[in-house]
Every structure is written in C-alpha cells, then in structure tokens.
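Design a sequence for this backbone.
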C-alpha cells in the first residue's frame, strides 16, 4: 500500500515557501509516497454550481483562499525534496490547453527525475470552467481529447512529430520536448465520482481516484473501469485505485481493509491547521501507526 498526503490549501499556507517546504520535507522523511496538491484556477464568488462532495453544496475552501497553481507548486516542492512523489488531485483539464499543458507537465517530470503523477478531472464549478474559456457542457469530450493529446505529444514520434485531428484540437507534425522521464509518459489517474469517470479511467487512464463514494457504489465504479479497460484492449490489472482517508484516523488495520477492496494507494487529508509543528506531529504519528518510517 502507498500512502500519499494532501498539502491542504485550507491551511492558507501552501503559498508560504517555508511552510510548504517544511511540510513536504517532513512528509518525505516520514516515508509517505507522494505529496498531493489541488487546483482551482479561479473560485468564483457567489457561485451557483453545486459542490458534489458536501451536503451543503459548497466547497470547504473559501473563495479567497490562496490556491497556488499545482504544477508550479510541485516544481517548487521538487526542488526542495529528493525522492517523494509529486501529484495533482485533481488537475482540472478543461481549464488548460493540452498542447501547452503537455510541455508544462513534461518539464516538471524531467526536472524532478520522473516523480510526477497527474490526477485529472473534468471539474464541477461551471463558473470557473467558463471563465477559463471552455463551454461547460463539452468538458467531458474535451477531457478525453486532452488526454489523447498529452499522450501523443509525450510519445517518441520524431522525426515526423505528432499528429492529432479531433473535435477540439488539431495539429500536424508537432514536436514537444522535453519528454517525460517516465517510460510511457506521466501517469494520468482520473478523479471523480461518476460512471463517466470510471469509463474514462478504463479507456484512457492509468488509475481511478473516486471521490466521495464507498461500499457498493465504489465497487460498481471499479467494475466499470475494469470492464471498459478490457473492451478497449487494455490490461485492467495495470490500473491503480486510489482511495481517500483522514490522516488522523487511519491505521494499519484500516489500510489493510482498503487494500482488500483493491486500493493501491490511500490519499490522506491532514487537519487543515496553519501550525506547521502541529501538522508535522500529525504526519509523524500517522506514519508511525502505518509503519512507514
């Protein structure tokens, strides 16, 4: 089992260079597999969209919470650590042009020595996605194309370059360098809670990170992912499942229980305290319970 930790933006400290450096270095020293960071390009005040992961319909982050760009933040963390993985959770693909994004992701992967993992999503906040120039109702189809574009540009297609002709993106002979360090490109896991998320993970992803689901519904999504992978001629055994948990409550027994459900990774949410000493103590206690050190 792999254990990742989220650098919680609710601390309002993830843009503080000393705080995020201390957090990441301590997580690495404790033996956690990766540091995960979130994305909102903008958080629109008085949004009407319904946040699907809380009964209130509102996200836990205030609209004026400082949420740094995830790839820029991970590049910063990469320079201050040596081995811990770097991950998004989730990168909202419709907010980005995939040709530019392919270069940015590959650059972070190259400079970090191949430590990057992308968890990608389609987004839930209509106002944010439309502010980034994308029609909300097309975000699913665009995301599928974006994943295909990323993989096309990361592939070794020299000297001719990569070609892509889709509904939203079109190019011929595109040469994008540097390439990711990781063979096959940077892993792309799919985050979300819907059947479309599970289908996308099976057809195009390297794993599934379902949000806010458990029990029979979780198993249903996993089954959909595996079925779609088989139908697409892909090996479902190569796809990872990442599940969430609270760092303060997880223990080795709980980790074993999640592993029995097929989980390869647990993404842990730490208490959103701005007190770095408190957060470090929570990480240390969690790592000791899990036997990571």
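Sequence:
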């Amino acid at each position: 089992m792999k254990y990742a930790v989220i650098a919680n933006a609710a601390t309002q400290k993830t843009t503080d260079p000393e705080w995020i450096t201390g957090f990441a270095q301590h997580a690495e020293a404790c033996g956690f597999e990766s540091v995960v960071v979130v994305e909102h390009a903008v958080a629109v005040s008085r949004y009407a969209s319904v946040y699907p992961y809380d009964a209130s319909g509102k996200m836990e982050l205030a609209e004026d919470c400082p949420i740094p760009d995830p790839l820029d933040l991970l590049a910063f963390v990469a320079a201050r650590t040596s081995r811990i993985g770097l991950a998004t959770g989730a990168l909202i693909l419709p907010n980005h042009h995939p040709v530019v994004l392919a270069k940015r992701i590959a650059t972070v992967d190259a400079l970090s020595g191949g430590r990057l993992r992308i968890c990608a999503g389609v987004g839930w906040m209509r106002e944010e996605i439309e502010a980034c120039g994308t029609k909300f109702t097309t975000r699913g189809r665009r995301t599928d194309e974006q994943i295909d574009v990323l993989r096309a540009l990361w592939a070794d297609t020299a000297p001719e370059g990569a070609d892509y002709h889709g509904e939203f993106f079109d190019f011929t002979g595109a040469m994008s360098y540097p390439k990711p360090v990781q063979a096959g490109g940077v892993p792309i896991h799919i985050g979300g809670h819907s059947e479309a998320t599970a289908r996308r993970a099976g057809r195009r992803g390297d794993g599934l990170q379902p949000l806010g689901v458990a029990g029979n519904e979780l198993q249903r999504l996993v089954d959909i992912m595996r079925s779609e992978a088989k139908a697409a001629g892909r090996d479902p055994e190569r796809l990872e499942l990442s599940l969430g948990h609270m760092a303060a409550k997880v223990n080795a027994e709980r980790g074993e229980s999640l592993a029995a459900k097929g989980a390869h990774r647990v993404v842990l949410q730490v208490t959103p305290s701005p007190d770095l000493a408190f957060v470090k103590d929570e990480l240390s206690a969690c790592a000791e319970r899990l036997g990571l050190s």
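The chain has a mean pLDDT of 97.
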